[in-house]
Specification:
mainly beta, B30.2/SPRY_sf, ConA-like_dom_sf, SPRYD7, Jelly Rolls, four-stranded antiparallel sheet, 41% strand, SPRY domain containing 7
Length: 154
Amino acid sequence: MAAMFTCCLGCCGDGGTGHIPLKEMPTVQLDTHHMGTDVVIVKSGRRICGTGGCLANAPLHQNKSYFEFKIQSAGIWGIGVATQKVNLNQVPMGQDINSLVLRHDGSMYHNNEEKNRLPANSLPQEGDIVVSGLVWWSETKQVLYIYSRSLLKR
């Protein structure tokens, strides 16, 4: 009985071989190594200013991805996904095969083609938090929500 108890403590205690430490995941933020020349990143990598684009420091994994953003101020903006081959100085984004972008006017562009458009009465406004879910398969689908209200399903 004592041998069994010792074995159990040896496996579960601090000196056990079964302990697997958890890795802390890095914070996802805007990547200053992948941004346009006229872009400024502020607020510890959480806000973009200027003209151009910036990639995040984390890739999209598997077949489904999620991200959200807040419209800090009214103006001309675009948000979406892109490969590392995208020209981050070319605005508006969505003009090539390397980016899929929702623009401030509610249009969604990829390869210089309008792929979809939000209804005029549902455009994101200053202060809105927009949630974007991407589902990848033979045809990419993007689902957008503002405050859990579905805006676009394509």
